[in-house]
């Protein structure tokens, strides 16, 4: 499979992996694809930490609540203003990037790099799963991976050779997402119609039964990402950023 469009359209997350390692050459190749991504001012305000050795791999997996436990390779992608500030110091320049604008810019750079890595990995027959749990234990992950201040883990990817054929998950279609020329606020009926693909999918209907919720939406609002948890995680994240004495937010 080497057609980019086919690779993109056939994407699915993989969460179970064989014990086969991702060899150095393959890892180097997919990282190079990440580094080719467009980025703010060509400043590349990110770093990628590849974790493969024990006991670090298992410790990191624990901080992701044991998800993707069989993954032989973990990529933690960090916003990295620290390296650029060091570059500024070496060149006897100001260090003007410890603020929201540059945190967001670095987050965009890191995301584009990550997705290039993932598409390249799929093209090479690897599987992967992004893990949002990086945002739940950011402080602990930063400590474990010895990130200096100004280096913030924002994206985690578990990767390896697939040991499962995951289901192909549904997506909202263009009718929900694509706006022509200007933003069109959908009527409630339009919104319900465009979400049928998700709400009425047999797999999701079964999830509603298993979770005992009134509908698919409620699985998210009461079980997966409830309000109180969102607030607590947000507070921890903000405190971590503030404690690093780096950010002028
Ligand atoms: C930022 C981000 C965080 C994610 N976090 C998790 C996670 O913590 N656990 C998990 O099993 N999947 C996680 N996923 C994978 C999504 O659940 C998955 O992409 C989505 O359900 C669509 O399925 P697909 O990728 O197979 O098409 C994450 C994906 C992204 C982009």
Describe the secondary structure blueprint for this structure:
Elements: H1 4-9, H2 24-35, E1 46-51, H3 56-63, E2 73-80, H4 82-90, H5 100-123, E3 127-130, H6 138-144, E4 151-160, H7 174-177, H8 188-194, H9 196-199, H10 202-211, H11 216-224, H12 227-243
Antiparallel strand pairs: 1-2, 2-4, 3-4
Structure characterization notes:
- By secondary structure, this protein is an alpha+beta fold.
- The protein has a domain of 165 residues: 3-Layer(aba) Sandwich (NADH Oxidase).
- The protein contains twelve helices and four strands; from the N terminus they run ααβαβααβαβαααααα.
- A four-stranded antiparallel β-sheet has the order 1-2-4-3, sandwiched between helices.
- Helix 2 crosses helix 5 and helix 10 packs across helix 11.
- It binds flavin mononucleotide.
- The site of flavin mononucleotide has 12 residues, from strand 3.
- Flavin mononucleotide binds next to strand 3.
Mean pLDDT: 97
CATH architecture of one domain: 3-Layer(aba) Sandwich
Order of helices and strands: HHEHEHHEHEHHHHHH
Q: Judging from the principal axes of the Cα atoms, what is the shape?
A: globular
